Amino acid sequence: MTGRRPRRPVSGVLLLDKPVGWTSNAALQAVKRLYEATKAGHTGSLDPLASGLLPICLGEATKLSGFLLNADKSYRFTCRLGVTTATGDAEGEVVTVRPVGSLSRESVEEALRRFVGAIQQIPPMYSALKHNGQPLYKLARKGIEIERAPREVTVRELRLLRLENEELECELCCSKGTYVRTLATDLGEILGCGAHVAVLRRTAVEPYDAAGMVTLESLRERAEQGLAALDAVLLPLDSTVAQWPAVRVGGDAAFYLRQGQPVLVPRAPPGGWVRLYRDEQNFFGIGEILDDGRVAPRRLLAHGVP
Description:
Blueprint: E1 12-18, H1 24-35, E2 40-42, E3 51-58, H2 65-69, E4 73-81, E5 83-85, E6 94-97, H3 105-113, E7 117-121, E8 130-131, E9 134-135, H4 136-141, E10 151-164, E11 167-174, H5 180-191, E12 195-205, E13 208-209, H6 216-225, H7 227-231, E14 246-249, H8 251-258, E15 263-264, E16 272-278, E17 282-289, E18 294-300
Helix pairs in contact: 1-6
C-alpha cells in the first residue's frame, strides 16, 4: 500500500502567472502539491476570468502574506463597450445592449480622470464579500440582491492604452479592495453606452511586478527535474517587504525581540515598519519603530528559516 508523500517545510514566495479559468485556490493547491509544501497561502484572489500575478507564500512566508494583501495592485484590462452583464465581466448574462456611438480618445480620457484619486465604489453582488456569513455571489446566483455600503478606494493611475471599435484597453494602479469590474461598469455609464470587463490581467502586487512570474506549465517541467529546480524560482522571505528599511541587531537584541520585548537600536530609522535582521543577512521578521525610538517585534519567523 502506497502512502502519501511526506510534506516538507519549504519557505519562500512564488510569483505565479495564474492562467485564465483557474480559481486562485485551485492554482494555490496545484503549487502546494508540486512543492510538497506543508503550508501555503495566496495573497488576494484573482477571479477565474483574470490572469496574471498571484504571489503564493510557502511555509514561513504565510506569516507575511497579510502585508501583500494590503499592497497596491496594478492591472491591464479591456472593456467591451455597449454591453453590460450581471457580473460586470464576460462570464455574466447580458443585461443591456446599447449603441456605443462615436467616442473620441479625448472624451474617454476625460472620463477616466474622474476615477483617479479617492473614489467611492459599491462592491458588486458577484463578489466574495459576506453577508451574514454567506458570500454575496451565492446570494446573487439565487437572485437575491443585498444593499451594499459604498467603500472608499484609491486609484493611483488610470491610463488609456487603446480605443478601437467597441473596445478600450486601460492600465490601472490602485489600492487594495478596488473592483475593476465595478470601475468598468461605472465608466460605461459615464460614457453613456455601458461596459463590462472582457479581459483582465494583474501585472503587479507591490513590491513585485510581472518580470519574475512563472507559469504552472513551467513549474510542472521543473518538477520533473526535482524539488531543487522548483526551489530555484522561489524568492526570499524578505522580498515581501523589500520596500521597508532594514534594522540589524546583534544576538542579545534578537533574543529579547523573540521574547516579545522592544529593544533600543542605535540609529534606527524614525517611525514605521522595518525588516529585522540578526547581524547582516539573517532575516527573522517584522518590527515597528516606537515613539521612544525602540524597535518592537510585530511578526517573527521561526528559528532557522533562511
